[in-house]
Amino acid sequence: MRFIPRDIQEMYQTEMDAFMFLHDQIFADYITQVSWKVPAETAIELAALQIRRKLGNQNS
């Protein structure tokens, strides 16, 4: 069972820790249950977005 907030944007703004926990749960579910069905191009784009989220927008 999983809690799904009514307003995800409000959750992001007011409860960042809970939002990040929910994000990590959904991401793990996606990786284990859906990712093998996704075209390679989409998987690469999603991986790039995940790297950007983890590392931020680092410019040299």
Fold topology:
Layout: H1 8-14, H2 16-33, H3 40-55
What is the overall pLDDT average?
A: 83
| Largest sheet descriptor | none
Name the beta content range: under 5%
- In DSSP terms (H or I, runs of 4 or more residues), the helix count works out at 3
Envelope shape: flat
- Structural classification: mainly alpha
How far from one another are the termini?
43 Å
Proportion in helices: 55-70%
Order of helices and strands: HHH
Number of domains: 1
Query: How many distinct beta strands?
Result: 0
Poorly predicted sequence stretches spanning 5 or more consecutive residues:
none
Radius of gyration: 14 Å
Structural notes for this entry:
The protein has one domain (8-57). Helix content is 68%, strand content 0%. It has helices spanning 8-14, 16-33, 40-55. Helix 1 crosses helix 2. The model has no long low-confidence stretch (mean pLDDT 83). This is FERM domain-containing protein. InterPro entries: FERM/acyl-CoA-bd_prot_sf (IPR014352), FERM_2 (IPR035963), FERM_domain (IPR000299).
